[in-house]
Amino acid sequence: MYVLITVDTESSICQGKPLPYEQMVYGRIGKECYGIPKIISICGQYGLGATFFVSVFEAQHYGRELIKKVCLDIAEAGHDLQLHTHPIWIDSDWLMWQYPLERQIGLIKIGKEMVYQFSGEYPIAHRAGGFGADFNTLKALAANSIPIDSSFFFGYPCCRLTSPPLSKNGISLIDGVLEIPSTVYTEIKLASFKRYRNLDPYTTSLPEMIRVVKQAKERGLKTVVVLLHSFTFLKMNKDRTRFEPDRADIKKFDRFCAWLKEEPGIEVVTMKQIAECGIQNSEFRIQSSEHSAFRILHSAFDFVPHPGIFYTLLRFFAHFRKSRKNRLVAIFIGMAGMMLFIIVGWLIGH
Length: 350
Ligand SMILES: [Zn+2]
Prior knowledge:
alpha/beta, TIM Barrel, 2 domains, ten-stranded mixed beta sheet, two-stranded antiparallel sheet, 11 helices
């Protein structure tokens, strides 16, 4: 099974103001960097390649030199540089699906040319900012000869790609574009109610991440896509004016990479590696689907991992320091457990 470590490399806008680029992308705090240099350093330690989706339209605000430097830093470290589109930096709306097909074709073209101007190579993969893609986005990629997309996040409200016709976690080839979804797992399953999460070390504990990847491998998924942001290892206040490193998440990602490196049957690859050899590979063999309204040529076997309620509850303790919600739930679970223990003890005693 192929595991893809992907990093949305970007700043953001908070209360109408663009945030400081050095903090959001490089994670600079004092003399140390906890952003992309830290991710590159951890991946490098285990010889793992990562795909960095760079939000190149931010050059409009921060300047071309800064974004070019980021692109070169990624490429020179031997990692994969691909296109991330947040149209708000050069146009009026936030998400790709808010634009008609013609404008989406234009936006992808601008982004593609910018990646080329900054790095000397055209992108072969794309992720829409905020996972805000629709089926026109895939058409726009095909029109720009970009063969891979990774904008599908099943169950995410901003995403207008859907399953069906796409496969939630399996790969699909639609309109000539290979969709490799951001892997989702179910956090909660109660009868027909399911809550989905993506595989992000910020929100997922290490035991959950390992269990999701193991289940995906055992059940035959071809790819697992892990999502990070350039600022994943930073703790920020609500206004995003104070930054500090999240050392627990840095350690978590380090241990996850160490596990990936050692786990049999797993190969960590980049989007570029998939484009170079994967599409031709028999594992990505094309099958036709007669019944779909869409021209889906390939829809792999689908499976959604479910680590289970025990792992979900455990996460509230593992992420105790992360948020007030985690602390409240962990305290509630602890108190409920003690009550149960006392009641059972009392019943046995009588
Ligand atoms: Zn983004």
